[in-house]
Design a protein that fits this description.
single chain, about 400 residues, D-amino Acid Aminotransferase, Chain A, domain 1, about 20% strand, ATP binding, purine biosynthesis
Length: about 400
């Protein structure tokens, strides 16, 4: 397979039809009141072209996709780009602002706000309608479903864009788990492999692999942070430098690999491949290691469990055929936007980046929603009003903190 194989074709509508915004009549969840958990949802469809005889999972319901794209265009002016909850909610302190997440402190709790900012290449690229809500709800769904593997820090979710979590001591290591040789960033497995690296983060890789090939087994490629970029490290370096004890690292590594294997299982049951992802862990005062949602000291990590910001997803049915044809897999993540920026500028070095096309911004909004609905078998609830998101959040967070 050529390393410069073209991305999947993107079909973008010309003149979107008028459509009613999708709604949900499902009863609210008792644990997370804003999550509408309907019994099931039909398969959704982003615009990637299916190849061959198999009908793509991405092409099952074009009417729903058109309605979401229309809603996304209408919401472009109401994206949550910046937050200042500490100015609106008494007793709240701004801890850190990241590429996507803003973290506030309130006593023994953290208030984690997921904005609509879109990041890649260690910088913000655009604002994506509904993104913060989709990521927050996707992450909460996975946190709830993975409690059999590891405890987590989630306390509640008082708003569509907000999670309240327990404060804990955070390990300064990002646990990146990979199942395939792929990627386009400087630290992606394909990039380093294509440069000749055969021992990456302590994993010995065989010669002769090609882009998007499945590894013989899932591997852990941990990273830490230096200034503003990821730094791949080996387990030995983590332990010898004192970033983690061997016992803590071994337990977190085991949890990360188990979480990823479970995520792959759930994804495949819904027609998707979980390609790679990243996790972060913390430790409570009693010594319990738990999965966390964000490190307020290092917000360049885009956490949130198994979301498109922390994970790469492909369509399962078309993967083999496209791989054998040296084509990029049908992806349900932000890779297509990464590729657009790489093809139109130098996203690592250019001081000013080109503005992302509106069609691609709305397309990414749809893919986030598609993934949420496909994985969770629930209907995403698009906001029914144009109430400013920040005003709604401020009201909901203030009430939640009063009741803690």
């Amino acid at each position: 397979m050529s390393p410069s194989a073209p991305p999947s074709a993107i079909r973008l509508p010309v003149g979107l039809p008028k459509a009613s915004l999708p709604t949900s009549s499902s009863p609210p969840s008792a644990r997370f009141p804003h999550l509408a958990m309907s019994a099931s949802s039909s398969r959704r469809s982003p615009p990637l072209a299916a190849s061959g005889a198999n009908a793509s999972l991405l092409a099952a319901d074009p009417g729903h996709r058109d309605a979401v794209l229309l809603a996304a265009r209408g919401a472009m002016a109401n994206c949550l780009g910046e937050t200042s909850l500490h100015l609106a909610v008494p007793g709240l302190r701004l801890a850190a602002k990241g590429k996507v997440r803003d973290v506030y402190e309130s006593g023994e709790h953290l208030v984690l706000v997921t904005t609509d900012r879109q990041s890649a290449f260690d910088r913000v690229l655009a604002s994506i309608p509904f993104k913060g809500q989709v990521l927050n709800e996707t992450s909460l769904w996975w946190f709830d479903r993975t409690r059999h593997i590891t405890p987590n820090a989630v306390v509640s979710s008082p708003d569509k864009n907000v999670t309240i979590a327990k404060r804990c001591s955070v390990f300064p290591v990002e646990f990146v788990v990979r199942g395939y040789v792929t990627g386009s960033t400087d630290t992606s497995l394909w990039t380093v492999y294509n440069k000749g690296v055969r021992n990456y983060c302590g994993n010995v890789l065989p010669d002769g692999m090609v882009k998007n090939q499945k590894l013989s087994e899932n591997i852990l490629t941990p990273t830490t942070k230096a200034a503003d970029h990821d730094v791949p490290v080996t387990p030995e370096e983590i332990i010898n430098s004192g970033l983690m004890s061997k016992e803590d690292f071994d337990e977190a590594r085991s949890k990360a690999l188990s979480l990823f294997a479970y995520g792959q299982e759930v994804a495949l049951e819904n027609g998707l491949i979980l390609v790679d992802t990243k996790y972060e862990f913390g430790k409570t005062a009693d010594g319990t290691i738990m999965l966390i949602d964000e490190n307020p000291r290092c917000l360049l990590f885009d956490k949130q469990v198994h979301t498109p910001d922390s994970s790469r997803y492909w369509i399962a049915d078309s993967y083999k055929e496209r791989f054998n044809s040296s084509l990029e897999p049908e992806n349900v993540d932000k890779e297509f936007l990464r590729l657009w920026f790489k093809n139109n500028c130098n996203p690592y070095e250019d001081a000013v980046l080109p503005e992302a096309p509106e069609e691609l911004v709305c397309e990414l909004a749809w893919r986030y929603i598609f993934l949420f609905e496909t994985i969770t078998n629930t209907k995403f609830e698009i906001p029914k009003t144009q109430e400013p998101i920040h005003e709604r959040m401020s009201r909901n967070v203030a009430l939640a903190l009063q009741n803690l």
